[in-house]
Predict the 3D structure of the following.
Amino acid sequence: MEILKASYLLTPEEILQGVDLAIDGGRIVEIGPNLQERYPKATLHHYPGRAILPGFCNPHLHLEFSANRATLSYGDFIVWLESVIRHRERLIPRCDEACLEWAIEEILSSGTTTIGAISSYGGDLEAAVRSGLNVAYFSEIIGSNPGAADILYSDFLHRYYRAKKYEGERFRACVAIHSPYAVHYVLAKKALELARKEETLVSLHFMESRAEREWLDSDSGDFRQFFEKFLNQRKAANRPLEFLQLFHDLQTLVVHSVWANDAELDLIAQEGHAIVHCPRSNRLLGNGVLDLDRLKARAIPYSIATDGLSSNYSLNMYDELRAALFLHPDYPALSFAKELLVQATTWAKRLGFASGTLEAGNFADLQIVQIPEDLEVVEELYLHLILHTHKPEVVYLQGVRHGK
Ligand code: BEZ
Ligand code: FE2
C-alpha cells in the first residue's frame, strides 16, 4: 500500500486539505486524514505544495494523425479537408510505432489517463492497448459511395472485432460514424445496428463547419465544388436531423456541433447524448466558437477535447483548457475554470471507466500538480491550475508512478 499526502486533494468537485489518499493494487482504497496511522506499514509519498487530482479524460483525438505538424492546411475547413484527402495515405504511415508512443507519452505526461481514440485504419490499436490508459477505442466508418458500402462495412467490422479482443476494465471497443456528410445512410445504419447489439458507446462528428450546414441543408456552399471534384456527387447523401435520428437510444458523443441548429440540439438533449467541444481545432479550421449557452439551456452535458494533431498543435489538455477559458470570455473565469476541470476529469466515467474522481474503488489514475506558492484564496485553485500548469509533476496510471 502507498499513501499520498499533498497540500490539496481535488475530488474534483471539492478542494480538501489535510486529507490523504491510500492506493493499493492500482486502485484508490481510502481517502481520509492521517492514513499513515491506520496503515503504518504503507509507503508514504509526500507532496508538499502540490495538489492531487484525477487524471484527465480527453474524449476525442486521432492517434493515427500524430505525425502531422504542418503538412495539413489550417485556416479554412474545406481547404483543410482537401489537404487531409491529399495527404492521408502518406501521413498515416508516417505515424509509426515510435510516433504513436511519442503521442501517448505526450498524453500521459500532460495528465491525461483516459482517452477516446478515433481510429480509421486500426494501425494504432496495439499501441493504444499497450499505453495502459483507459481507452475507448472507436473504430470509425467513413464513405459516402453506396457502391463501396459492402467493402467498407466488412473492413470496419474486421477492425471492430480485432479491437474487441482486447476488451477489459481499461479498454472498450466502440463505434464511430465519421459524419453525416461522409457516411452513406445505409452504411451508418448498419454500423449503428452493430453498436446497438454490442451496446457500445458511439462517436459522431456533427455540424463542425458552415460548409457542412449549407451542404446538408440545401446542397449548397463550399462543399458543392468539393463533392463534384472528389466524388462526382451533386447532392448531399443525408439530411442532418434524419441522420441524427439514427442514433436513437445509443449513447453518443456528438463532436463539435458548432453549427447545429435548435431542432438538432433539442434532439441531442432529448436522446441524452453529450457534446464534445474542441475549441482549438474549431478555431484553427475556421469553424468558429461553440455557443455553450445553447447547450446549457438544454442541459446537454459537454466536455473539452483536443481532437487530433491533424487539427491542433498539442494533445495537452492544459493547453486546451486554457484555450477554452479564453475563447469563452463571457463566463466568469473562476466558476468556468472549475466547470471545465470537473468535466475534463469526471468524463472518464461517461466513457465507461472506473476513473476520473477520487473515490475508493476507482483506479488510481491521478495527477500531482505544483500549486503557486503564493496562492491566497483556496477556491481560486481551479483557475490557477489551468493558468499555471504546463504538465503535472507526476502522473499515476493505475497506481504506477510516471515522472519525477
Ligand atoms: C471519404 O473519405 O470517403 C470522404 C471524405 C470526405 C467527404 C466524403 C467522403
Ligand atoms: Fe475529430
About this structure: Residues 138 and 174 are 4 Å apart (CA to CA). Residues 2-55+356-403 form a domain with the Urease, subunit C; domain 1 fold (CATH 2.30.40.10). Residues 60, 62, 118, 205, 255, 307 surround fe (ii) ion (ligand 2) (CB under 6 Å). The chain has 15 helices and 16 strands.
